[in-house]
Amino acid sequence: MSDLDDAPSVVCLRPRRDFEQMGIEIPADLDVTFYDSERQLAGVGPDAQCVVLPSAGPTLSREFFSHATGLTLVQYTGAGIDRIADDVITSLGCAVCNVPGASAPDVASYVVVVSGILLRRLLAGDRIMKVGNFDPTPAASDPLGLFERVDLDALLDRAEVLTVHVPLTDATRGLIDAAALARLRPGALVVNAARGGIVDEVALMEALDSGHLGGVALDVFEHEPLPEDSSIVTWAQRHRDEVILTPHIAGVTPEASRVLFESAWSNVRTFLIEGGEPRHRLK
Fold first, then answer.
1. Bridge partners, 164 (sequence order)
2. I need a surface site. Which of 113, 130, 140, 270 has the fewest CB within 10 A?
């Protein structure tokens, strides 16, 4: 008889190598089946007691969990919690946990970097230099400010750089819409490193097309991975000096990944093996 015959069954929707590369040891007293992604699995079976999954990725359907009658825990390996709809979680009746805060410093540094690139017009400078021109004429601003907590309306009226860092929920979906973008100062920047769907992508493209916005940086998109024929791609190609697109990497660093992975697996083991209360339980 295998030592894992009585071990809790865990389905992990990311490959083992993700954890091995970070030096993370998977608890030996868990029976874990790894998949490269949800595309390798038709659905979660009745034997699975836990699903471990990345916070970034496509929404998982109700059908994906239609046979998951033994599920007691959904553990995200990041801060995001929007891949499974609330009504699906309610029907499953299981705990849902994330790992908040671990990548916050890395996301903050990403925002500073991309904002600086756009404010200083470094993309345009790079392009001009690569075709043999040299124009040292400055065309940027150097913002300096202090932290102050204000409501959204006041923020929109005053912001020169709007950065988005809220979870995607029913309350925040479409939060930054055409009306919100119109309230920003002319030439303002918009940086979304939270979740696609919080910023209305069509309204955002129109605001830059019209000249109202000065630049945009997007690390997240309503549909991920971003299709090659996406209108966002062709729009960004038209605005190559004003738009930065990155593939959901703002919080992805080795340091953050180690903390996220260690915390996630520790939580799974605490709940399934030790019978303890799961940390960062959302539902």
1. 192
2. 130
Between CA 85 and CA 235 the distance in angstroms is: 30
pLDDT over threshold 80, residue 141: no
Q: Which tokens is 201 given?
A: 């992508």
Total H helices, total E strands in the chain? 9, 9
Q: Residue 175 corresponds to which amino acid?
A: L
pTM of the model: 0.84
CB contact at 8 A, 71 and 48: yes
Question: What does the alpha-carbon distance between residue 180 and residue 206 come to, in Å, rounded to a whole number?
Answer: 13
Reported as half-sphere exposure (CB side, CA atoms, 13 A), residue 109 has a value of 8
Distance, CA of 82 to CA of 103 (rounded, Å): 17
pLDDT digits (tens, 9 = 90+) for 41-58: 999 999 999 999 999 888
Average pLDDT, the chain: 91
Confidence of residue 131 (pLDDT cuts 50, 70, 90): confident
Q: What domains appear along the chain, each with residue ranges and CATH number?
A: 9-102+254-272 (3.40.50.720), 104-245 (3.40.50.720)
Q: Rounded to whole angstroms, how far apart are CA atoms 97 and 74?
A: 6
Q: How far is the C-alpha of 210 from the C-alpha of 202, rounded, in Å?
A: 12
Q: Which helix (H) or strand (E) holds 227?
A: none
d(CA 17, CA 20): 5
Q: How far apart are CA 77 and CA 100, in angstroms?
A: 9
Active site residues per annotation: 195, 224, 248
- Report the distance separating Cα 169 and Cα 28, nearest Å: 35
